[in-house]
């Protein structure tokens, strides 16, 4: 296993890089700096890396690229693709301007790239590092037909419920351990005069995350895997049962800030604001660990003090779920710098690389070699620790594994159908049938294409 250097050493290397060259946060290359001599054979090469990140995320990832430049002498240039990474990368390949490395945000997109023969299989050295530093489940999500194409560098723990301790204290409730306890706590919060949950129903992807956590806990990982691959239908009784469970929350207007109509008019940042903003309207908001970034950066909340979380609770007799998302580094065949690209991906498999961003916040790594002390606050350490401890029981976001027409399109497919369910959760069987019809069409089209 590759051992990480301390954050101080990484910071020193980064400082050297900045002293000897320009950063590429604005898109320009990073000049070579530092390194161990052996890797200087990459000096003079410029590596283009594409990904969805912008703003603070792009700046923090650039610090990782700077550390790579300091180590190897290779220059880097980051290109932000926006959310539609598949279309942007396809256009660049067609135009003869393919990036060398792409940070792919969805399993389904990685599989799509592989099917189109866009990807270079990762080297044996990269595979060895993945085997040593990651739980096998992550290698599986980065592989297609047994060939490793992607390394998951950044992950998220999407099984966290964020709350205001003051609101829960006022209601006299403690963080729940089961879904039934969650509902009871929600009713107590509502009875105390504050809505229990801010639900981001305007953003359909948040509703898929609600469903996935309930389904993984209640139906179990085997069923989850089958549904994710559409090996069982969405009309399966397990799906209907999960929708019934979710409806116990969604059907009770007094538990939701603004009721169901208010939830449908609330986007994700707005849902965080309703709990942690200047005029709180709710006590809790469900979403991944990235809630902390908004609560801290936008509303000045101190994470772990006046903004904290509890794990998404177990449903019925199931185990507490751990649903994750993440961004995988892949090497494009049409990139002009294959050797440097592979070297970067190998660097991204190390705890050293992950520790650079971990120190900045807004990031957790699936790399089990990362020292928890590298994370900037105790809350991030807790979310990272739960992700690592989950091991092979972690399941990747189901909608991100589906064809985009079903699991990743605004106003269509799963997003739209679950919004309709939030609007009227009275008939879970009908919703399951609608989900199956949309899924069948999307998978059929994907298989044909």
UniProtKB/TrEMBL annotation:
Q: Which PROSITE patterns match?
A: PROKAR_LIPOPROTEIN
The entry's keywords: Signal, Transport
Which lineage?
Bacteria, Bacillati, Actinomycetota, Actinomycetes, Kitasatosporales
Q: Which organism is it from?
A: Streptomyces thermolilacinus SPC6
The leader peptide range reads: 1-26
> Pfam families under this entry?
SBP_bac_1
Q: Which InterPro entries match?
A: Bact_solute-bd_prot1, SBP
Q: Can you tell me which family this protein belongs to? A: Belongs to the bacterial solute-binding protein 1 family.
Q: What is this protein called?
A: Sugar ABC transporter substrate-binding protein
